[in-house]
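Data availability (excerpt). The following record was deposited with the supplementary files.
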Amino acid sequence: MTKNNSQSLQLTVFNYCLLIISFLLCVLILGSMSGCKKSKKSESSETEADTLKAIDSLAILIETKQNELQELDSIIKIREDSLSQRETALTICEQSISKINKKIDLTLKDNNAKLVELYEAMETSKVVLIINKLSDERVIKLLLSMKKRSSSRILEALPPDRTARITKSIMGKEK
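Predicted structure:
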């Protein structure tokens, strides 16, 4: 429950208590009025006794409702604390994941750079044999990371249809 729900619940119980107190006052007023009209003292004292019993019963009911409200407030506090702890743990996990993702990105960039260096040091014909087994997306990433001279040699050695397809993909990415 949120704080607004807790406050709403408290107001509901408070209004309920006010209603009971108003009812008791009406009973007292009516009881005293009927006691004035009656001539016998015993009937008046019986009405007062009944009224006092009703008041005691309602006071017990009010106290019970207040205790229930306090218990609910305690439960709400415990759940809010638990939620706060979980939010803190989630934030820590998100930060850890972010750090790990950054490390992975750096590793991938480093690996890609090393691979590009290796391919640039190899003979173009052997690189083309390897590249022909890779997806266009991977080839594009490699070509865009290479020096112009190396990438142009590879594009030259690739079959014309594949070179055209790769070129179209690269041009589409630049838009």
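Summary of structural features: Residues 41-121 form the longest helix (81 residues).
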